[in-house]
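Notes from the 1:1 (GR / supervisor)

We went over the backlog. Supervisor wanted to see one worked example end to end before approving the batch request, so GR pasted a single chain during the call. The sequence is below; no edits were made to it. Supervisor asked that the structure be written out right there so they could see what the output format looks like.
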Amino acid sequence: MRSRVWGGTTAVVLAGLLATGCGGGKKDTADEGADQAGPGEFPVTVTDCAGARTAFSGPSEKIVTSNASSLELLLRLGVGDKVIGTGFPPGKGTLPGALDARAQRVKVLGKQVIPKEKLLGSGADLYIDTFASMNMGGGMGDLPTEEEFKAAGIKHIYLKSTACAAQRKGPVTDLSSVETDITSLGAVTGTGPKAKELVAGMRKKVAAVRKAVGAVPEEKRPTYFFFDYDAGTKQPTVVCNRQIANAVITLAGARNAFASCDGDFKQVGWEDVIAKDPDWIQLGVRNRGSEAANEKAFDEAEKWLRSNAATKGLKAVKRGHLLRIGSERTTIAGVRNADAVQEIAAALHPDRVSTS
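Structure output shown during the call:
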């Protein structure tokens, strides 16, 4: 088990099950903070990786989210008023724009994993699970059984893009799993049109980048290392080919330096990074809650690379090819993955891609 930190809180990324669904749509908008649920069609059935089906006769009205990633997706769908609680809440200032203020009004049921008794007694009719297992020990609570969820009247579904990542049979090279999650949540909350709108916006951005960098031969695409500064510097943690970051990097016209690593994350040695000698390095810093705090963290990450004997000679460090792009947009599945694709591509291929 690995723990990930997002916005000053810890989030657990594990292998597991997923939810799939369907939705309708219209053009993307920039109104990220509005709670405006759209019409939906029911009944809706979602399935998990094992084929188990969960049926919805109408939109869920009282939702609990396991962490900030699924909470953000619901806020973007405009159903923040239906979220009655969350675990692993986002730190203040870590979500963009009006989403942040809305997120801060959601009741925190657990600063980390929601205790089993509190989850079952929450009054929720739906629990959206970003994880595959919550048998975490340490007094943090275990995941209720499916029988216990049923007895409490809570439907239990998972996010495919995170819970199933490490189980994939092949590398993640596109954002289809993220799109599926958005569409699924739109289906079960009656916001299919908004879900399709969000997906369409993501696809438009990614398609433009793919068209721009499509002619660049694979062997001429720069190699790229995601430096997870917040995971610690003693032993680097790299993103492997099952992590959503692999898709972001690939779509941006780069080659993940550790794409040969099966799984989502893996600890390696600095000698492995030196052997790869990447063309570009992303300073993987998680949102500190303000622009000033973020810049300070980026400065610290860059200073470490430039002063450490093992890394100061790396090609990317000597050339100043160090990207300041927040970790969440790259490693946490969501709408902002498409923004990260565009931003990385613009830095690596400025003659082909623009962020404007």
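Supervisor's comment: The two ends are 40 Å apart (CA to CA).
Batch request approved.
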